[in-house]
Amino acid sequence: MITYLKIENGHFTSSQTDTSDTVWLNVEKPTEEEIDQLVTAYELPKDYITGVLDDNENSRFEGVHQNTLEEPALMLLQYPHAETSPSGYTQLNTFPFAIILTTDGKVITVINNPADFLKQLFTQPVPDSELPIQETLILYLSWQISTSYNRFLKELIQQTNKLEGELQVSTENSQLYQMMDIQKSLVYFDFAIASNLEVLNMLYTARIFRDPRAHLPRLHDILVETKQAATTTNIQLKLVDKVSDTFSAIVSNNLNNVMKILTSLTIVLTIPTIIGGIFGMNVKLPFANRADAFWWIFVITTATCIFVIRRLKKRNLL
What we know:
Shape: rod-shaped
Number of strands: 7
GO molecular function, one term: metal ion transmembrane transporter activity
Subcellular location: Membrane
Distance between the termini: 66 Å
Helix content: 40-55%
InterPro entries: CorA-like, CorA_cytoplasmic_dom, CorA_TM1_TM2, MgTranspt_CorA/ZnTranspt_ZntB
Transmembrane segments: 261-281, 293-312
Family: Belongs to the CorA metal ion transporter (MIT) (TC 1.A.35) family.
Strand order of the largest sheet: 2-1-3-7-6-5-4
CATH architecture of the largest domain: 2-Layer Sandwich
Strand content: 15-25%
CATH class of the largest domain: Alpha Beta
Radius of gyration: 33 Å
């Protein structure tokens, strides 16, 4: 699907066709017809668009060597998106996001998976900037992608803290599955953010910008935000590894405590079974001729069980 966007009253508004006022073409899950249409209309290399169809596509920057934009340029970044994992918990994945600069001053963005920050972007005012619209959008979209990583990282930190509070009473595997999904999310983030940093650093020396110095303050903010996400990801990866090891040890220890209690109770319950079995034999036994034999046996059995229970508690076995 192709959405044509132009600027009216400081906001992006969509139109049905591509006009001279169109500044941004947002393409989601393009069909073969739409890909051919864009390639023909804007003389794009086909891999600029088809690259995002591969979810494992790496971040890259093509066309940065040009002094002026005589050919379309591509900046491909990776952005985070929340999905449901096979174990049923929220898992964060990363997908490619293509930003194509055309020779006629327009921007084409291409995605093959939902991007939450784009929906918010359409409803927000156009960023106030003296830069050309291509430079404004490429910096603004990069900023949105960078901040989305930090936003998702805060959610992961909250989930990890919540799991830590469940460590003392956990004897199930559900928390381990959730911890595994958090680890997978952080691994995806680690590689995607590192790859994005390499591409964003290329903007410092990009010749295609009319005045490179004009966008340096904004680019600095983007890099600071991205480096913050990289640092947070590395810290959380190490913490989650430690928590996961501790989590496994505590789950195992809790299970051992349960088994210890069950074993001790089995020993206590075995005493009445043994005594009952002895006095159930068809031979001559003590108390056999007494009318109150049952009560004597009951008292002896109870006293023996109480004695064993106290001994087990004294040795911390019950």
